[in-house]
Design goal:
With 374 residues, this protein is an alpha/beta fold. The protein folds into two domains: 180 residues, ATPase, nucleotide binding domain (Nucleotidyltransferase, domain 5); 178 residues, Nucleotidyltransferase, domain 5, CATH 3.30.420.40. 37% of the residues lie in helices and 20% in strands. Strands 3-2-1-4-7-13 form a six-stranded mixed sheet. The chain has a five-stranded mixed sheet with strand order 10-9-8-11-12. Strands 5-6 form a two-stranded antiparallel ribbon. A hairpin with a 7-residue loop joins strand 5 and strand 6. The longest helix is centred in the first third of the chain and has 27 residues. The protein is globular and about 60 Å long. The chain starts with 6 loop residues before the first strand and ends with a strand. The model has no long low-confidence stretch (mean pLDDT 96).
Length: 374
């Protein structure tokens, strides 16, 4: 199904559950151009329900379907706003790449291996009159892969430079890193928690959904013993392909590791969680089969790029590199992941693969996603 247009929309509601990022991009040239962007905040009741659906509960099949319909209403609002801002009609859009909301992620070696994103792509196609591509991760998992991260191929397309070693790190709820050695290879992995624990702890102790600019955390002092305790989780020392989510890094995980550290001030725990994210990102980059210490640029996108304390901690962990937000390269930090799923949707329509086996561990490159025609 070849697209008649180079225009695609990407919609992303990530692990942070703050809302829906949407972009409308033009892929007809050698490099994509974002024509419009829009953000739809997540209503508190839907955010609470999506969080609850990460764990087993009463009547969860019905609740999951209802939550997916609410989510698609936000997606629809985002699409209409993007069309209005760009001045384009729905007929000019080849496809919407709608990732859905991950509520369970159990990749190999788990048995059964699966990944589950709440979505109603048929409803989105009906509401917008635009072809929808969804369910991107399942085919990679079926081929023995982790199903994540899927953005490294797009990072290579946009940021890769021959002969220059660089990394692109998306810090959402979970952090994922793409390593681009400059020799054509694309490497990557989920490094661990990005903002998920930072947001949880901040909300619990300040009542704010996140620590704006990291200002609260900078009032504390990281505790080295607690940091080592947090980093002792087996996930961080695992090498090879790996992905994770709220299935592992959640409130109970943090509570278990905080035993024996009850004497610490809440703000000191926050400062330590900043270091956890920075250390695990740097450690993840060094676990990949490339010369991590030769990396020259580390581009940061996602909400974590807006946390000055976290950016400073990353620069300290990667002293040889220039750590900076993707906005310095003309890609505002909230655009990158949504644009990646617009690109993945276009790959699907073109019958081209979207995964990178060196990243996910799949048996080979695969065309990802299911198509719901307009």
């Amino acid at each position: 199904m070849a697209p008649a247009s180079g225009h695609c929309i990407g919609l992303m509601s990530g692990t942070s559950l703050d809302g829906v990022d949407g972009v409308l991009a033009d892929f007809s040239g050698t490099q994509p151009r974002v024509l419009a962007s829009h953000f739809v905040p997540m209503p508190d009741d839907l955010r609470a329900e999506l969080l609850a659906l990460n764990t087993p509960g009463h009547n969860e099949l019905h609740r999951a379907s209802a939550a997916a319909q609410q989510l698609v209403a936000l997606y629809t609002d985002a699409v209409h706003a993007l069309l209005q801002r760009s001045g384009l009609p729905a007929s000019a859009i080849a496809a919407i790449g709608a990732h859905g909301q991950t509520v369970r992620h159990q990749p190999p070696p788990a048995v059964p291996a699966y990944t589950l994103q709440l979505n109603q792509p048929a409803l989105l196609a009906e509401a917008t009159g635009i072809t929808v591509v969804a369910d991107f991760r399942s085919r990679d998992v079926a081929a023995g892969g982790q199903g994540a991260p899927l953005v490294p191929a797009f990072h290579q397309h946009v940021f890769g430079q021959p002969g220059r070693a660089l990394a692109v790190v998306n810090i959402g709820g979970i952090a994922n890193a793409s390593a681009l050695p400059g020799d054509g290879r694309v490497l990557g992995l989920d490094t661990g928690p990005g903002n998920v624990l930072l947001d949880l702890w901040c909300a619990r102790h300040t009542g704010q959904p996140y620590d704006a600019d990291g200002a609260w955390g900078t009032q504390g002092h990281a505790n080295p013993a607690l940091l080592q305790q947090l980093l002792s989780d087996a996930y961080f020392s695992r090498s090879g392909t790996k992905s994770t989510g709220r299935d592992l890094f959640h409130a109970d995980w943090l509570a278990q590791h905080l035993r024996g550290f009850e004497h610490l001030r809440a703000v000191d725990v926050q400062a330590t969680l900043v270091q956890l994210t920075a250390h695990s990102i740097a450690q993840g980059l060094r676990q990949l089969p490339w010369q991590a210490d030769a990396v020259q640029d580390v581009w940061i996108c996602g909400g974590g790029a807006c946390n000055a304390a976290l950016m400073a901690a990353l620069q300290q962990q990667l002293p040889q590199a220039h750590v900076r937000p993707t906005s310095d390269a003309g890609w505002p930090v909230s655009w990158v992941e949504a644009a990646a799923f617009a690109w993945l949707a276009r790959q699907t329509l073109l019958g081209l693969p979207g995964n990178e086996p060196q990243v996910t561990g799949a048996r080979g490159r695969r065309v990802l996603g299911a198509i719901y025609p307009a």
